[in-house]
User: Which sequence fits this backbone?
């Protein structure tokens, strides 16, 4: 067994449950999706996102109109700049001396450039933090692959060690902002109904997340485990929704559901359902008069939130005469930022936090993924932060 912190050996100190012993890090890499910053970026960005995945051109054109209606600018980059600043302020407040670098999967600043920048600044071991809370190919392994490929592309494999913070869907720092949001959303919807003379009308709480192909859902998380709802991805959302509701006394007895949004891909490939708009259509027939929409799958109010929820789903609600409120995402909520820094501290020797809080029985999730976790169904790529990772381990 190798001793943690004894040099460049990414998988040193990993136990059989995927927990990595604390190490000394030189920097944090905030890793995100990336988005266009002007009309001329929109199509090149969409091509980056869908590279090699057979998304039809018509779908790209359709998604492009969402970005075009916002001037070709995705809100996600400004949100990540704000999150980076908030993390820096929180680290500073705690006297933790770790710089925060930022890199994206699909748009500048690209992860490969961020790794080069880190190495040139003298950093040799970085801890990545992604803006993605759950387990599935798109939200977990794809980040690990993009880190692995960036290391190969830059020639930094074996020179820059890259570890990653655990998936944090059930960390209190992620859950608490939704708790506040659901309480406020319920109060707002009930007030709107009261103003219409229907103070006791039934309301519904709808948790929304990104749909993914059912095959990707089934491949999420470690192999050979039975999950509620048929996959780790669905089970994590169901459990987190329940954890939120358990903390909102005003939600007692309110009916709720988990629904999906932002489906893409070929029509014959099955994705998780129901779509949020179809689910909303069902509510009036059940006597429901108001709905609180909770963007449980997302970290910030990016395009999937401001378009698919605030534009489309809220329009559906208006057409159905439903009183509706969309709850904020964690964004730069102080509890979320503190929670992210706590999770960095779980992994560091200095400022270590031994306790690993989790609000569901599924967590705390592992630091290092099990072999084939969140498998890429199109073939293998180099990854980091997996039991089966080879980049920079000497096994490549
Ligand atoms: C699980 C999941 C998350 C949540 C976790 C996480 O946050 O990572 C997420 C987030 C996001 N998805 C985003 C944008 C897009 N996702 C696409 C396509 C896809 N997403 C998928 C899944 C997810 N996606 C999948 C299975 C596809 C199809 C196959 C593929 O192409 O991989 C496409 C292609 C066009 C289309 O919609 O068909 C776009 C433009 C943005 C940026 C928003 C902005 O710019 O503000 C963000 C944060
Ligand atoms: Fe997406």
Assistant:
């Amino acid at each position: 067994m190798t001793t943690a912190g004894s040099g460049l050996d990414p998988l040193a100190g990993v136990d059989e449950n995927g927990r990595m012993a604390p190490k000394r890090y030189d920097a944090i890499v905030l890793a995100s999706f990336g988005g266009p910053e002007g009309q001329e970026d929109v199509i090149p960005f969409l091509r980056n996102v869908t590279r090699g995945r057979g998304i039809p051109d018509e779908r790209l054109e359709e998604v492009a109109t969402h970005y075009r209606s916002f001037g070709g600018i995705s809100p996600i980059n400004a949100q990540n700049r704000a999150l980076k600043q908030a993390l820096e302020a929180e680290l500073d407040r705690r006297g933790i001396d770790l710089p925060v670098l930022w890199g994206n999967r699909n748009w500048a600043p690209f992860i490969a450039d961020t790794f080069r920048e880190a190495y040139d600044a003298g950093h040799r071991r970085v801890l990545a933090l992604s803006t993605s809370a759950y387990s599935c190919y798109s939200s977990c392994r794809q980040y690990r692959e993009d880190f692995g490929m960036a290391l190969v592309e830059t020639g930094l494999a074996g020179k820059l060690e890259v570890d990653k913070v655990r998936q944090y869907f059930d960390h209190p720092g992620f859950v608490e902002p939704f708790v506040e949001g659901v309480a406020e959303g319920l109060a707002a919807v009930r007030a709107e109904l009261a103003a219409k003379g229907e103070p006791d009308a039934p309301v519904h709480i709808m948790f929304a997340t990104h749909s993914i192909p059912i095959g990707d859902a089934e491949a999420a998380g470690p192999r050979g485990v039975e999950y509620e709802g048929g996959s780790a991805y669905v089970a994590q959302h169901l459990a987190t929704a329940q954890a939120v509701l358990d903390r909102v006394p005003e939600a007692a007895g309110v009916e709720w559901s988990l629904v999906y949004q932002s489906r893409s891909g070929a029509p014959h490939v099955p994705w998780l359902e129901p779509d949020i708009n179809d689910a909303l259509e069902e509510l009036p027939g059940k006597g429901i008069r108001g709905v609180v929409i909770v963007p449980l799958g997302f970290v910030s109010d990016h395009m999937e939130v401001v378009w698919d929820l605030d534009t489309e789903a809220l329009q559906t609600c208006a057409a159905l005469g439903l009183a509706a409120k969309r709850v904020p995402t964690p964004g730069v909520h102080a509890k979320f930022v503190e929670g992210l820094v706590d999770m960095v501290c779980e992994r560091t020797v200095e400022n270590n936090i031994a306790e690993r809080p989790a609000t569901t029985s599924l967590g705390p999730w592992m630091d290092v993924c099990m072999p084939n976790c969140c498998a890429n169904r199109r073939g293998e790529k180099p990854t980091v932060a997996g039991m089966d990772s080879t980049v920079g381990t000497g096994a490549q």
Observations:
- Residues 172-326 form a domain with the Rossmann fold fold (CATH 3.40.50.1400).
- Residues 172-195 form the longest helix (24 residues).
- The radius of gyration is 21 Å.
- Residues 215 and 271 are 8 Å apart (CA to CA).
